[in-house]
C-alpha cells in the first residue's frame, strides 16, 4: 500500500488529495505567521521552521493540544525515536522553531525548542507527563493516552510498540501568538 508523510504522520494514498490540498493551504497560513514573527523579532525570514498540528492534519487532538500551548499549560511533546528513523527525519534541535496549526490547519502560535531528551517509554516520569499538560497531568493518564497513540503510529509503519521504545521529548516555550489566536 502506498503511503506518504506529513511531519511525523504517515497516511494512506487515498487521503493524499484532501490532505495535500489542506497542507498547501496551511503552508500559506503558517508562512504568514512566520513572516510576522520574524519581522517582529528581527529574524531573517528564511530562518528554518516547521509547521505541524499535534496528531497530524485534521486530528481530533490538534485543537485541544494547541489550546493547551496557547494557555501555557503544554510545554513539551514527545514522539517515538523509531518514527524519526523510519522516515529518515532529523531529531528536534534546541533553538529550532515550529508553527503550531489547529485541526483546520490555521496557524495558532510559534514555539521554540528549549530542550530535547531521549528516554524509554517505561522510564517517563510524572514530571515529564505534567509538562505535556494533558488530561489530569498524571503519569497514569499520560501512559494510557500515549500507549494508544504510539500503538496506532507503529502499526502504520509495520512495527509493534513496546515499553522499551525510546521517545524523544521536546520541551518548548511559546514565543509568539496572534492576539486573536484562540480555539474557543
From TrEMBL:
Protein origin, superkingdom: Bacteria
Ranges annotated as spanning the membrane: none
Gene3D superfamilies noted in UniProt: Sulfate adenylyltransferase
SUPFAM superfamilies per UniProt: PUA domain-like
Residue ranges of every copy of the ASCH domain listed in the record: 52-176
CDD domains (UniProt xref): ASCH_Ef3133_like
InterPro entries on file: ASCH_domain (IPR007374), DUF984 (IPR009326), PUA-like_sf (IPR015947)
Alphabetical list of SMART domains matching this protein: ASCH (SM01022)
Protein name: ASCH domain protein
Amino acid at each position: 500500500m502506498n503511503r506518504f508523510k506529513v511531519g511525523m504522520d504517515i497516511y494512506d494514498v487515498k487521503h493524499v488529495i484532501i490532505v495535500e490540498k489542506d497542507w498547501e493551504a496551511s503552508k500559506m497560513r503558517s508562512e504568514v505567521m512566520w513572516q510576522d514573527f520574524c519581522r517582529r523579532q528581527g529574524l531573517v525570514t528564511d530562518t528554518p521552521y516547521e509547521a505541524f498540528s499535534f496528531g497530524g492534519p485534521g486530528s481530533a487532538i490538534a485543537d485541544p493540544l494547541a489550546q493547551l500551548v496557547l494557555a501555557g499549560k503544554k510545554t513539551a511533546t514527545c514522539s517515538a525515536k523509531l518514527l524519526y528513523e523510519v522516515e529518515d527525519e532529523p531529531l528536534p534541535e534546541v533553538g529550532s522553531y515550529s508553527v503550531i496549526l489547529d485541526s483546520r490547519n490555521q496557524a495558532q502560535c510559534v514555539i521554540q525548542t528549549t530542550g530535547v531528551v531521549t528516554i524509554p517509554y517505561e522510564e517517563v516520569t510524572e514530571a515529564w507527563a505534567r509538562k505535556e499538560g494533558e488530561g489530569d497531568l498524571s503519569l497514569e493518564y499520560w501512559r494510557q493516552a500515549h500507549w494508544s497513540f504510539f500503538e496506532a503510529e507503529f502499526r502504520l509503519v509495520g512495527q509493534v510498540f513496546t515499553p522499551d521504545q525510546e521517545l524523544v521529548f521536546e520541551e518548548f516555550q511559546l514565543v509568539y501568538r496572534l492576539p486573536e489566536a484562540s480555539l474557543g
